[in-house]
């Protein structure tokens, strides 16, 4: 299932992780890759926007080409040496509001 993101929007996308008791996130890396060939104006992760707050990591996604799809992947490492990876799928376009 794809999450919608307008191409003009710069938005935070958080992920909350289930950690073992007493564990904490020490690093988080993000990557945004187009599904298909890369091109001008593809979605990107804004430099310096990656945050770690407790069990939540987030980054600011910017840009993207109308109608394109992207996979955003984040990898965390915890203080107890665990590693976890999650991916989210995005499609660039207008978000429909239900009345």
Give the neighbour order of strands across the main sheet.
1-8-7-3
The percentage of residues in β strands lies in over 45%
Output the CATH topology.
Answer: Immunoglobulin-like
CATH architectural label? Sandwich
- How is the main sheet built? 4 strands, mixed
Top keywords for this entry?
99 residues, mainly beta, Immunoglobulin-like, 4-stranded antiparallel sheet, 8 strands, 53% strand
Structure overview:
The chain is an all-beta fold. The protein has one domain: Immunoglobulin-like, CATH 2.60.40. 0% of the residues lie in helices and 53% in strands. The protein contains no helices and eight strands. It has a four-stranded mixed β-sheet with strand order 1-8-7-3, with no helix packed on it. Strand 5 (51-53) and strand 6 form a beta hairpin. It is elongated.
